[in-house]
Please model this.
Amino acid sequence: MLQPALRRFLTHPRVVVSLVALVALAVPLGVLTHGRGSHQPRLRMVADPATSTLVRETSAADFATGTAGTAWSAGALRITRPVGVRTVAGVRYELGRWTSGWITPGQAFTELVPSWSASTPAGSWVRVLVRVRGTDGRLSGFKDLGRWSSGDRWFKRRSAGSQADALASVATDTLRAQAGVRLDRFQLRLQLLRRPGHAGPALRSVSAVVSLLPASVSTSQPASSTPVSLPVPGYSQMIHRGQDPEYGGGGEAWCSPTSLAMVLGYYGRLPAPASYAWVKASYADRWVNQVARLTYDYRYAGTGNWPFNTAVGANLLADAFVTRLPDLRTAEAFLRAGIPLVVSIRFSRGQLTGAPISASPGHLVVLAGLTATGDPIVMDPAAASDGTVRRTYDRGQFERAWVAGSGGTAYVLRDASHPLPARPAGVRAW
Model:
């Protein structure tokens, strides 16, 4: 249900991950392991409050020399003096650039997905590129993993399509190692673009996840028998079926923006009514249509691009990123901290009792709580109406659909009043 067509569902990997912070430092944060898989969950960008200069815990020099026509100012990377010009779709843009040093996660990996937080005034956008090194020392070329703007009047955000070389390929928002290849380090490059005479983008953060997927999944035990149930509002994607076909047409194509909207509603940070004045007044939950428009990928032709969804969340909340969690026991810490999670599940017929759809090769739902016995309370946007969105699923079935289905992929979105929970020993997922 992430994709407008089954073929896209089956080929588009839902293994994204990231962290957003308030600006300017890349810090490898360790390894999250579960089963036989492991993840380097994020490359965290942090501001140095003393100097506002670009630094890195292990090697400040890596980043002090990475800027070209850009500088960190007022908590963001901005264009200072453009170092080039790029013409896209017949439009001329001035260009600034920042390139990280080589990041070594400390483990081999096979997949990488970036995320970011940025403001893009009219006529500006950001481009995110990544290159990787194989364990044999070979280097890939830079791969384009997203061209993003918050609006769509001046520039239509889009993924860059398929790209491949001997080391890696790209499927929409995910870089994947070629069969038999293992990767051991990566490098990020950010391009900031603006029309001449326009204000440029302000990039507040960038992050990445590298992953090895788990080979097996077992059902976890809850940490507590005290139930938790967060008051997440219920929005159905199905009541939007056929609406706004230029943004995917609602219905089964809108599980990601509908789930994102539910969490934004929980925090009281839905898009302002003026922003969705374009939506027909007769439609219910018109803010969902706006979130679908904000997340729409004009190349992929859908609303399921993970970094595009987290970028929207980052602009409306204090913090938004995608990570991967090993099990529901780890997710429980977020719920008890008052933070619902948007999670990606995949299941076949008969594998998720009580689901409003019989099967899905990829579907987003909101994990909103746990019962006293540890069963997940889920806001499932595939329900036929808003009033039937809230459901309870079997813990083992849901955990398999989530952890085996997507490697435990989750959006984490929070406001300033909800700090992240303490990490359990050995977990580096946030």
About this structure: The longest strand covers residues 183-194.
